[in-house]
Structure formats: structure tokens, C-alpha cells
Design a protein that fits this description.
Number of domains: 2
CATH superfamily of the largest domain: Farnesyl Diphosphate Synthase
Strand order of the largest sheet: 1-2
Structural class: mainly alpha
CATH topology of the largest domain: Farnesyl Diphosphate Synthase
Number of strands: 4
Helix content: 55-70%
CATH class of the largest domain: Mainly Alpha
Order of helices and strands: HHEEHHHHHHHHHHHHEE
Radius of gyration: 20 Å
Oligomer: single chain
CATH architecture of the largest domain: Orthogonal Bundle
Number of helices: 14
Largest sheet: 2 strands, antiparallel
Length: 374
């Protein structure tokens, strides 16, 4: 689960790359230590913002240690973040993963739709939630209200229909994300930042929800799955200004907070976030094409007779089972194909995916946007 704040080498200053990797590895190892090796699969880029915000308030006083060689970073050692920041990020990652798995179980789609997998998926969701609660207690965070807020998402979606405001649909996500951001102020020793962080978290939750809905719009139309942009009749065009408004709200909230070092937080929550919006909705510059979306119903009708083929007329193989997909996921990660390859086959779905640095990457630099705009 990589999230919307995907790293881009060409957009990351050289002096910030080790720090970003330190937070990423700190989260991964925190998940391993507190929830087991399989929990490392829930590592989420977006959750790193929480760890970064804690460090931004502590400055040089933030905890860190040297970690040993790891295959995922080329067997190199790394200075990693420790303490409350990675624990808060781990709580968010586990809680999000639990909610996603539980959603698949209740909808009966994805891996949960396979015979015998439903019970295992439900058990995994409960286990991840229990681990999130345990880690949250260790840092003074009550996770139950957050889980309850996320649990209301399904009820909100069931009540949504044509004319429902998109902000009503995103409200549960905003509530949970806002409280996670606010707790970063507590862990950073600056409770006066809680209000600003809560506002930034609500904006970030709204942005993440809208980007996810826009990116899945075509695929959900093809599968006949529920999508907030289609269910409310708003469409992608209505989500674009809301997403850009969320960017501005998040930026304004963070600028009002008192931070010791805001360089890395600005990179993630400003530059990376702007890049995610431009990638999903299209840039405002003339040389970078806007993302064109097709009508939900017409697209679904037009695609029904081609279910076994993708947009480039490649045959879609049957999805892999859980264990085969896990092996494929490990290979893709260890060989950096998810980052550097132009196209790769999804480990479980076997759909064609695009690497985040597909527009040119030598593992040291890339050019993610042809016009160079953010």
C-alpha cells in the first residue's frame, strides 16, 4: 500500500533523500518489531507524513539509530527514525490496512471473494486492528474512536446518491486523519500545534480520498464497483477543484504551525502532494495533458465485451492467489520494478501497472513531469 505521496528522485533534494529513507525504514522496522514481518506489507508512504511532522517539531532532539543492511535499499546501512513518530505512522498504516481488508470482506471482492479466503481475510483485518490499538496505547493514542470513524464510511457510502456532496462522503476519512495529525503535535511536545495539524489532517484525508476515487474511476466503472464520484454524480471534474482546495487548506494550516525544521514536511505535504494532484487530474500547464475521464455508464457499456483485455489489447491473465501474489510482490519490490520499470504486472491482479518513475529513471534521477512543473 504505497499511498499518494510517492517519492520521486528528481523532486527530492540530495540532502533530504537519506532523511526520507530514514522515516520509511523506521516505519517498516517498527511494523516488524510490533506486529510481525507480514505487517511490513502494510507500509504506507502517506503515513510517513506523521513521522515527519513529529520530527519537524523536535528537530535534533528526535530519536534515531543506525539500522543494518537491507535488500530493499541495496544492502546499505541507514540512519532511521525511532520513537513516537514511527509508532504513530505504524498505527495509521495498520489501521488503514485493516479497514481496507474489512471492506473487501464485506463487499466480497478481491482476494476475499475466493473460496476459503474470506475467513482468513477477516482474521487478518481483526489482527491488524488489534496491533494498531496496542501500538496506539503505547504512545497515548486512543485508536477506538478512529476505527469507529472509519467504520462509519460504509454507512455514509450506502446513504450517498446523486446530489450528495463529496465532502459528506469524505467526512469519516477526514475525521480519522485529523486526529492522527493532531496527535503528532502531542508526540512532538508542542500541543499548541494540535489545531493547525488537525486542520491539515482533515485536508489531507479529503485529498487522499478524492485522489483514490479519481484514480480508480475507470477501473471501478469496468468492474461495476462503487465509486463516490460516480455514485454522487459529481464526476472527476467536480473532484478536481476540491482536491486543489484541499492542497491550499493543508498548506495554510501547516504554515500556521510552529515547526523547528519544515524542509521535509514541506517536501511531502506540499511538493509530493502537488505532484500527486497533477498526476491524477492533469497539470494546468499547456505542455502537460490533462487526464481525460470517460462517462461512467457509456464506458462501462463499451467495455463489457472486452473484459478479458486491457486498453492496449493485452490479454488479462487470471489473478494470482494470495501466496503466489506475495512471491511476485517480493520480487517486484526487491528488483525495484514498481519504481523504475515503465510497465509491470500487478502481483495479485496481474493488471498492467506503471512505475512511479516510468518517464525516465536510472535509479538516481528521473523526470516525472515533462514540463517540469509541480
Amino acid at each position: 500500500m504505497f499511498g499518494i505521496l510517492s517519492p520521486c528522485p528528481s523532486r527530492t533534494p540530495e540532502d533530504l533523500k537519506p532523511r526520507w529513507m530514514g522515516h520509511f525504514c523506521g516505519l517498516c522496522l517498527e511494523l516488524r518489531d510490533d506486529a510481525g514481518h507480514l505487517a511490513r506489507l502494510t507500509t504506507n508512504y502517506d503515513a510517513l507524513a506523521l513521522s515527519v511532522l513529529v520530527e519537524a517539531q523536535l528537530g535534533d532532539e528526535s530519536g534515531a539509530r543506525d539500522a543494518g543492511p537491507c535488500a530493499l535499499r541495496g544492502m546499505r546501512r541507514q540512519r532511521i527514525a525511532t520513537g513516537g513518530g514511527p509508532r504513530l505512522a505504524a498505527t495509521a498504516s495498520l489501521l488503514l490496512a485493516s479497514a481496507k481488508i474489512r471492506d473487501h470482506v464485506e463487499d466480497g471482492d478481491g482476494l476475499a471473494a475466493r473460496p476459503g479466503a474470506r475467513g482468513l481475510a477477516g482474521f487478518s483485518a481483526d489482527r491488524l486492528r488489534a496491533k494498531a490499538i496496542a501500538i496506539g496505547e503505547s504512545i497515548g493514542l486512543d485508536v477506538e474512536p478512529l476505527a469507529a470513524a472509519i467504520g462509519r464510511q460504509r454507512e455514509v457510502e450506502s446513504a450517498a446518491g446523486p446530489g450528495t456532496a463529496l465532502t459528506d462522503v469524505t467526512a469519516p476519512t477526514e475525521t480519522a486523519t485529523a486526529e492522527l495529525f493532531a496527535h503528532a503535535a502531542v508526540l512532538g511536545g508542542r500541543p499548541e500545534n494540535a489545531g493547525a495539524f488537525r486542520s491539515a489532517g482533515a485536508a489531507f484525508g479529503r485529498l487522499a480520498h478524492l485522489l483514490d476515487a479519481a484514480e480508480d474511476f475507470d477501473e471501478d466503472a469496468e468492474r461495476g464497483a462503487w465509486n463516490p464520484l460516480a455514485a454522487t454524480g459529481a464526476g472527476v471534474d467536480a473532484a478536481r477543484p476540491l482536491a486543489r482546495g484541499a492542497l491550499e487548506d493543508m498548506k495554510a494550516a501547516l504554515e500556521s504551525a510552529s515547526l523547528v525544521d519544515e524542509t521535509l514536511s514541506r517536501l511531502l505535504l506540499d511538493r509530493y502532494a502537488h505532484h500527486a494532484v497533477a498526476k491524477t487530474f492533469g497539470s494546468t500547464c499547456a505542455t502537460y495533458p490533462r487526464a481525460e475521464r470517460r462517462d461512467y455508464r457509456r464506458y462501462r457499456e463499451r467495455r463489457e465485451y472486452r473484459r478479458d483485455y486491457d486498453d492496449d489489447h493485452y490479454y488479462r491473465h487470471r489473478p494470482r492467489n494470495f501466496f503466489s501474489g506475495l512471491c511476485a510482490f517480493t520480487v517486484l519490490c526487491c528488483t525495484c520494478q514498481m519504481c523504475c520499470r515503465e510497465h509491470y504486472e500487478g502481483p495479485w491482479s496481474r493488471r498492467r501497472r506503471e512505475g512511479c518513475c516510468r518517464d525516465g529513471c536510472d535509479c538516481c534521477s528521473c523526470d516525472c513531469c515533462p514540463c517540469g512543473c509541480d
